[in-house]
Design brief:
Keywords: Glycosidase, Hydrolase. It catalyses: alpha,alpha-trehalose + H2O = alpha-D-glucose + beta-D-glucose. With 557 residues, the chain is mainly alpha-helical. The chain has helices at residues 35-42, 50-53, 61-74, 81-91, 120-136, 142-146, 174-184, 188-205, 225-236, 239-259, 284-291, 296-312, 343-362, 366-387, 415-419, 429-442, 470-481, 486-509, 540-553, and strands at residues 4-11, 14-21, 55-57, 92-95, 99-100, 137-140, 160-161, 261-264, 267-270, 340-341, 388-389, 394-395, 398-399, 404-405, 467-469, 518-520. A three-stranded antiparallel beta sheet has the order 5-6-7. It has a three-stranded antiparallel beta sheet with strand order 10-13-14. Bound molecules: the ligand OC[C@H]1O[C@H](O[C@H]2O[C@H](CO)[C@@H](O)[C@H](O)[C@H]2O)[C@H](O)[C@@H](O)[C@@H]1O.
């Protein structure tokens, strides 16, 4: 499946269109592209497409590929589903075999936050979630390091916390809220190991992949390494740790500044954009099905948009739909994320610049500190000039196809408050807070018993109504708290309380007790749904956010 992609180039002073071949998600002809992957994934041997690409090989890749060629010869290229199942059972082991037992040495039985939780039922719940880190902790076996050809798992030396369920590997942006929770649990050593894993990955790949699998290798997720390091340094005061890793974390920032920026109305801003070929290996048949009869450049563009959607962490949402009228009504075939400048991504980049400035100053490099201070100020101005909407009184995603702001409610619209990327010092400070509070009120998103929905549109996608997600509740709560406005602080507490009520009831009602990756916010006690896989129990970032809210508000609940 060779795929060609047009690029604009200058040849002898004239613009010409060249076609180049986009590379696959990774070189592996088993896990990332090629006839074997195609045959197995389209045969629908497993209800979840991710199952196959997580399996371990029983023989070296060349042997497995030769066995597959033999099967194709014997069946005149038309193996039955049963023959393919026999081939997979013979050549692959079960998924989830990459780990050895791990008992975290920094786990303590009574972390201090628990004594701040007055309500005894909630305190008991907090204790159980604190214990839950052990069940979600993973240490990769030496065999993955020594025989990496047999696995899709990316080897990292230190133990880490996974989201849970089908998410058997580390996930990049999930780890920010996991790290938050771990620090509340006083598991500083585990956090340090996770950060070292990420630094090693940046040094090897030049970016942090979406998750710890080779099929995620070429796409990232919202940039949270620098904020994670900041959390760790604030908790421990370990400046030496920072000094030794600052050039690596700067490298990760450079990845975004070099590969993910665009110019909008003369301002530099960031977008998600993964220019790699073919369906997502872990959602192969889903992407093929949506692609339908697309071909040529339209097909290329579609595959780029699917991977870019995964890079955003919001896979998928009306937030990324652009239909022919330029609105967000449509279906997954309308995903045009690479034409959208997202508020949250730009707030995160702006925050990263500010944190790097602070960090370089901490390690005594004032010249670098000034460079990142200038970048922070430039990004903050660009966010204000391109994304702020004076009429709505909030920041909005920007559609570069139609040159317009997207007037739809998403919690990400207030990300600049969370990230500290708005003009707090300006005389208009309280005006901004007034406007944002008014915007939230008008949005109708505050009316639900179980938290704030991801949007006000029910598209069947998982990052839309009626689902609420832990990182978005955190963004709203701390975005509002950061304003230091009493009305905003009251609303923040109210959102946190609703979210805790919802999570706690779902935990009590599930057998066995479980935390989920997302919840339905229109009632209390139900997990969310939609999207391309079943709702997953676990769950790393959900637990991290609950621990954070219990620590912050536990004496008021
Ligand atoms: O397999 C489908 C998609 O699954 C992941 O995305 C979802 O789970 C992640 C782990 O909790 C989370 O980071 C992401 O925000 C969720 O949408 C995966 O990250 C995607 O790349 C993948 O296509």
């Amino acid at each position: 499946m060779a795929n060609l992609f047009p690029i604009l180039a200058i040849y002898a002073g004239v613009f010409v269109t060249l076609t180049v071949q986009l590379p696959p998600p990774c070189p592996s002809e088993i896990y990332c592209h090629g006839p074997l992957l195609h045959a197995v994934q389209t045969a629908e041997l497993y209800s979840d497409s991710k199952t196959f690409v997580d399996k371990k090989l029983r023989f070296l890749p060349d042997v497995v590929l030769a066995n597959f060629s033999q099967l194709m010869i014997e069946t005149q290229n038309q193996p039955t589903k049963e023959q393919l199942q026999t081939f997979v059972d013979t050549n692959f082991d079960a998924e989830g075999l990459e780990f050895q037992p791990w008992d975290p040495s920094d786990w303590i039985s009574d972390p201090p936050f628990l004594s701040n939780v007055n309500n005894l039922e909630l305190r008991d719940w907090g204790q159980k979630l604190h214990e839950g880190w052990k069940a979600l902790g993973r240490q990769i076996t030496d065999d993955v390091r020594d025989n990496s050809d047999l696995y899709s798992m990316v080897y990292v030396p230190n133990p880490f916390i996974v989201p849970g369920g089908r998410f058997r590997e580390f996930y990049y942006w999930d780890s920010y809220w996991i790290v938050k929770g771990l620090l509340i649990s006083h598991m500083n050593q585990t956090v340090r190991g996770m950060l070292d894993n990420f630094c090693q990955i940046v040094d090897t790949y030049g970016l942090i992949p979406n998750g710890g699998r080779i099929y995620y290798q070429q796409r990232s997720q919202p940039p949270m390494l620098i904020p994670m390091v900041d959390l760790y340094v604030n908790a421990t005061g370990d400046i030496e740790f920072l000094r030794q890793r600052i050039s690596t974390i700067e490298k990760e920032m450079e990845f975004w500044l070099t590969n993910r920026t665009v110019s909008v109305n003369g301002y530099t801003l960031a977008r998600y954009n993964v220019e790699y070929d073919g369906p997502r290996p872990e959602s192969y048949r889903e992407d093929l099905k949506t692609a339908g009869n697309l071909s040529g450049n339209d097909l290329e563009e579609f595959y780029i948009n699917m991977k870019s959607g995964a890079e955003s962490g919001w896979d998928f949402s009306t937030r990324w739909f652009i239909n022919d009228e330029g609105t967000n009504v449509g279906d997954i075939g309308n995903v045009k994320i690479r034409n959208i400048v997202p508020v949250d991504l730009n707030a995160f980049i702006c925050m990263n610049a500010q944190l790097l400035s602070k960090m370089f100053s901490l390690v005594g490099d004032e010249a670098k500190s000034q460079i990142y201070r200038d970048k922070f100020l430039a990004w903050k101005e660009a966010i204000q000039m391109v994304l702020w909407n004076e009429e709505d009184g909030v920041w909005l995603d920007y559609d570069m196809l139609n040159n317009l702001q997207r007037h739809y409610f998403y919690p990400s619209n207030i990300a600049p408050l969370w990230a500290g990327c708005w003009d707090e010092a300006s005389p208009q400070n309280s005006l901004v807070v007034d406007r944002v509070l008014n915007y939230l009120d008008q949005s109708q998103a505050l009316q639900f018993v179980g938290g704030i929905p991801t949007s006000m549109q029910n598209s069947g996608q998982q990052w839309d109504y009626p689902n609420g997600w832990a990182p978005l509740q955190h963004l709203l709560v701390y975005g509002l708290e950061n304003t230091a406005d009493p009305r905003a602080e009251t609303l923040a507490f109210d959102i946190a309380r609703k979210w805790l009520d919802n999570n706690f009831l779902a935990f009590q009602q599930s057998i066995p007790n479980a935390m989920f990756e997302k919840y339905d916010v229109t009632s209390l006690g139900l997990p969310g749904g939609g999207g391309e896989y079943d709702v997953q129990p676990g769950f790393g970032w959900t637990n991290g956010v609950v621990l954070d809210f219990l620590e912050k508000y536990g004496n008021r609940l």
